[in-house]
Design goal:
By secondary structure, the chain is mainly α. It has a single domain, classed as Rhodopsin 7-helix transmembrane proteins (Rhopdopsin 7-helix transmembrane proteins, Up-down Bundle), CATH 1.20.1070.10. Helix 2 packs antiparallel against helix 3, helix 3 packs antiparallel against helix 4 and helix 6 packs antiparallel against helix 7. It is elongated, with a radius of gyration of 23 Å.
C-alpha cells in the first residue's frame, strides 16, 4: 500500500507507480491486445513521419531552387517533426507496462522530448506564417531576409523549445508538492501543464490569424486583378505562387 507523506517532502526516490497512484492515473501492469495494436500502429506512424520529414530535408538541401529563407524554415519544421517522430518512437518503447520500469529522471526525459518537439513544431509554423505574411504584403515571392537572420530565428526556436521541455526536469514539477500533480502527466504540476498549453495555444492562434489574414488579402487582390486586363497577369501569378506556398505549409 502507498502511504501519504507530509507536504514539502520530496519524492525523488519513489517509483513511477507511486506518482500514478497518487494522481489516480491508471498504470497498466501487462500488455493486452489493444495495447500491442496501439504500439504497433504508433511505431509505424513514427517511422513514416521520420522518413517523410527526412526526405523533405534532403530535398531542400540538394535542390538549389529551394535555397531561400522560406525553405530553410520549412526544413527546420521538417527537422522539428522528425524529432517529434523520434520522441514518440522513444515513447512507444517506454509506455504501457514499460512505464513502471522508468525512473523519475527517465520519465521526465520521455515527456521533455515530446514537449520540446511539439513546441518546436508550433514555433516553426508561426515563424513561417510571419515570413509568408511579410512576403505577401510586400508582393515578393521570397523574403529578403538574410541567411544569418534565418539562422538566428532557427536558433531562437530551438533554444526556446529546449527550455520549455527542460523546465520540469530542473524544478517545475510536483515531486516536492505531491498534491499539485496532474492526473494527465503524474510527475508534472498542473501549473506547468497550463502554462505549456496556453503558450502553445496562443502561438497556434496567432499563426491561424496570420494565415487567415493572408488568405483574405490574396482573395481580395486576385478578385481585383481579375477585373483588369492581362497586363496585371504577372502580379496575379505572383500572388498565386505565394498562395501555393502557404497551402503547402498548411
Amino acid at each position: 500500500t502507498i502511504t501519504f507523506k507530509m507536504d514539502g517532502q520530496c519524492y525523488y526516490n519513489e517509483s513511477i507507480a507511486f506518482f500514478y497512484n497518487q494522481s489516480g492515473k491508471y498504470l497498466a501492469t501487462e500488455w493486452n491486445t489493444v495495447s500491442k495494436l496501439v504500439m504497433g500502429l504508433g511505431l509505424t506512424v513514427c517511422i513514416f513521419i521520420m522518413l517523410a520529414n527526412l526526405l523533405v530535408m534532403v530535398a531542400i538541401y540538394i535542390n538549389r531552387r529551394f535555397h531561400f529563407p522560406i525553405y530553410y524554415l520549412m526544413a527546420n519544421l521538417a527537422a522539428a517533426d522528425f524529432f517529434a517522430g523520434l520522441a514518440y518512437f522513444y515513447l512507444m518503447f517506454n509506455t504501457g507496462p514499460n512505464t513502471r520500469r522508468l525512473t523519475v529522471s527517465t520519465w521526465l526525459l520521455r515527456q521533455g522530448l515530446i514537449d520540446t518537439s511539439l513546441t518546436a513544431s508550433v514555433a516553426n509554423l508561426l515563424a513561417i506564417a510571419i515570413e509568408r505574411h511579410i512576403t505577401v504584403f510586400r508582393m515578393q515571392l521570397h523574403t529578403r531576409m538574410s541567411n544569418r537572420r534565418v539562422v538566428v530565428v532557427i536558433v531562437i526556436i530551438w533554444t526556446m523549445s529546449i527550455v520549455m521541455g527542460a523546465i520540469p526536469s530542473v524544478g517545475w514539477n510536483c515531486i516536492c508538492a505531491i498534491k499539485t500533480c496532474s492526473n494527465m502527466a503524474p510527475l508534472y504540476s498542473n501549473s506547468y501543464l497550463v502554462f505549456w498549453a496556453v503558450f502553445n495555444l496562443v502561438t497556434f492562434v496567432v499563426m491561424v490569424v496570420l494565415y487567415a489574414h493572408i488568405f483574405m488579402y490574396v482573395r481580395q487582390r486576385t478578385m481585383r486583378m481579375s477585373r483588369h486586363s492581362s497586363g496585371q497577369r504577372r502580379n496575379r501569378d505572383t500572388m498565386m505562387s505565394l498562395l501555393k506556398t502557404v497551402v503547402i505549409v498548411l
